[in-house]
Amino acid sequence: MTDISFQLYSARSAPDLAATLKMLAATGYTQVEGYGALYADATKVEAVQAALAQTGLKMPSGHFSLDMLENSPDRVCEIAGKLDISRVFCPHIGPGDRPADAAGWRDFGARLEKASAPIRDAGLAFGWHNHDFEFAALDDGSTPMEHILAGGPDLEWEADIAWIIRGGGDPLAWIDGHGARITAVHVKDIAPQGECADEDGWADVGHGTVDWAALVAALARCDVKLWVAEHDKPSDPERFARRSYDAISKLLGGRA
Predict the structure, then answer these.
(1) Hey, what domains does the chain have and what are their CATH numbers?
(2) Of 35, 32, 126, which is closest to residue 88 (Cα–Cα)?
(3) Contact by Cβ (8 Å): 33, 62
(4) Per-residue pLDDT tens over the stretch 34-50
């Protein structure tokens, strides 16, 4: 059975990390994915480390900000070592830092490639996690994502499928064209039009409009190491965790 991971950002509203991890382990998750607030200081890293040990959950991947990757790579590697993170993903850049043209996005890919050097030297994998803005057409009709991948030829890609759709992209076409770069997938869902407004229009996996059965079939051609459940704004993280685990388990079935 394929291991299923859970992006802990989805449970950021929960007051007790240890209780959240116990709930996830009891639900059936074997892995979690970290994000910046969990390792903001040494005390928090130690708390995460202890909670993982208590539940037996693993943290094979983590999101780290570009600022931390560029300015504190030794700290990134130290945290990764303590939490047994083997895949590091840069998750986002703010609107004010986004290039305006193809050349700028290609340079950004090269910037990520440069930031990856000390991470890879430590034996860790490194990649980019997308949102929607990477799929908005530039003036020449191209997209930022294609230039990020071209500028960073060794970057892995953690493909957030629902964000591709929200950005106007065709996820099946992206899987077909760049599937060799996809090593992790964020499994999330989009609510039907007009529903789940309090959750920014996101849905629990299997309860939305994304055709995950077709996507899983397409992704079978890729070397996906991590399947990560995520919801950007769940009103009930435990409900999301349980319903999504059930849906993803059925989708992945007996995949090795």
Answers:
(1) 5-252 (3.20.20.150)
(2) 126
(3) yes
(4) 999 999 899 999 999 99
